[in-house]
From TrEMBL:
Record family assignment: Belongs to the tetraspanin (TM4SF) family.
Transmembrane regions listed in the UniProt entry: 7-30, 46-65, 72-96, 231-253
Lineage, uppermost ranks: Eukaryota, Viridiplantae, Streptophyta, Embryophyta, Tracheophyta
Bilayer topology: Multi-pass membrane protein
GO biological process, alphabetically ordered: auxin-activated signaling pathway
Major subcellular location class: membrane
Gene from which the chain derives: LOC107794457
A Pfam family this chain is assigned to: Tetraspanin
One Gene Ontology term, aspect cellular component: plasmodesma
Protein name in UniProt: Tetraspanin-8
Compartment(s) where it occurs, according to its Swiss-Prot or TrEMBL record: Membrane
Keyword terms, alphabetized: Membrane, Transmembrane, Transmembrane helix
Amino acid sequence: MVRCSNNLVGILNIVTFLISIPIIAGGIWLSRQANTECERFLEKPIIALGVFILLVSLAGIIGSCCRVSWLLWVYLLVMFLLILLLFCFTIFAFVVTNKGAGEVVSGKGYKEYRFGDYSNWLQKRVDNHWSRIHSCLQDSKICQSLIEGSNTKADDFFKKHLSALQSGCCKPSNDCNFEYVSPTNWTRTPSSSLNNPDCTTWSNDPKILCYGCQSCKAGLLDNLKSDWKRVAVLNIIFLVFLIVVYSIGCCAFRNNREDNAWKRYP
């Protein structure tokens, strides 16, 4: 007699098996189409994720539908480790993103970002990989819209809402007190300050701007903070789903053992 739990595990894993195919295909496509180091960096993790989902799904399908107990046991072990890993990552993500926020500047529509305001762990990770991140930010052309808006008046620019990366990487810090010429062109005046190291790092060269500034790193961290919090919330939903699937899988494993025992002792 076919058990309901075995069917459910089989159906759920057929769905995940089908999902893994476009993930792998996307990784392969990206490896062939990648033009920058940033895009090439993504291809291997995507392919690895697709292959992992495919193998786990196959183990679940064969283990539940073909009543292969040892394979279903491996499937449940992997699921348990995945649940544990996601749980730890979710807690960790909330902890490391608890610090840091943009600083509201009076009379400005954008915020200022300070690298030291964020988690020490995130700061170290960004510092260690900054050369690659720096290249990726330049390739992404996040400042392009500001460069094209060279006719924007000062009052309009100061009221403009900028993303964390645009505020940190595409303009000098508010501390510098530079004179505005255009969104990506600023000049020093006698009243300008160089107390902030970012003030000497800034360049009007569109290829340099403030990509080497601490404020640019801070803008990236603010983006990471927002993204990690969204991922953590999604992880909670995914964890609930995995726990339900794991529970059903345990029932299917118990059914397999009972069926095997029945066949052994008729």
